[in-house]
Design a protein that fits this description.
Rossmann fold, alpha/beta, 11% strand
């Protein structure tokens, strides 16, 4: 019997790597999709390659999508400050400057196109609506709406031959719960990169929201972060 196929969005970060491990555990043939959108933390692309190799994906596709042309985010415009040393209370207020306009809509659209092309009925994305991100395109409402749109916007969906499902296994988890899940699945978090604003040598800054949430997660689990400091 042929394995089911899944397109998995893999950034090289902690969340997407855990998501990939979950998809593998569920027995899918893995098609990893990594996107370079002009993010200042492009070092995560190297991490994504290591992660894809470690999980023996069927194919790892890297695409360039120059969202820097639009700007509007501290991740794609170096003139905009990346928030640093914020408290959890501060992180929980509003939508941060690290939000990239329509990023997950763009990412899911590309994953959708590849899924239809290779005959995959499953897409995995490591979005999380719990741990202070504030991003509108990480909410369950957005995922459900996109899934409905996908069935209306594709040949296979219109023909009724495609039961597409978008999997968001991490959406209700805290960072600690995500790490616990990954550790049970044998994830090597030493391969991953989370920092939004790495130093010139690629090392994490240790002060952006992503670094702080990662640190908090490992502390709550009672484990040392294996990634290089």
């Amino acid at each position: 019997m042929m394995k089911k196929k899944a397109v998995v969005l893999v950034s090289g970060g902690l969340d997407s790597t855990t998501c990939l491990a979950i998809a593998k555990k569920q027995g899918f043939d893995l098609y990893a999709l990594t996107l370079f959108y002009g993010q200042r933390h492009k070092v995560e692309l190297k991490a994504a390659r290591k992660v894809a190799k470690a999980y023996h994906v069927k194919k790892h596709l890297e695409l360039e999508v120059p969202l820097t042309s639009f700007g509007g985010s501290s991740l794609t415009d170096k003139k905009i400050h990346v928030p640093k040393s914020r408290s959890l209370k501060e992180m929980g207020k509003g939508i941060p400057s690290t939000y990239v306009p329509a990023r997950n809509t763009v990412f899911l659209s590309l994953a959708l196109a590849w899924a239809e092309a290779v005959g995959a009925e499953h897409i995995f994305i490591g979005v999380n609506a719990l741990d202070y991100s504030g991003y509108p395109d990480c909410r369950p409402e957005f995922i459900h709406a996109f899934e409905k749109l996908a069935k209306l916007a594709t040949k296979k969906g219109v023909e009724g031959k495609w039961k597409l499902e978008i999997h968001t296994p991490l959406i209700r988890m805290s960072k600690a719960q995500i790490i616990k899940t990954g550790l049970k699945l044998g994830v090597d978090y030493g391969l991953t990169h989370s920092c939004y604003d790495p130093k010139p040598n690629g090392k994490p800054c240790g002060h952006c929201d992503s670094c702080l949430l990662r640190e908090k997660g490992f502390k709550e689990v009672g484990k040392l972060d294996p990634a290089p400091p």
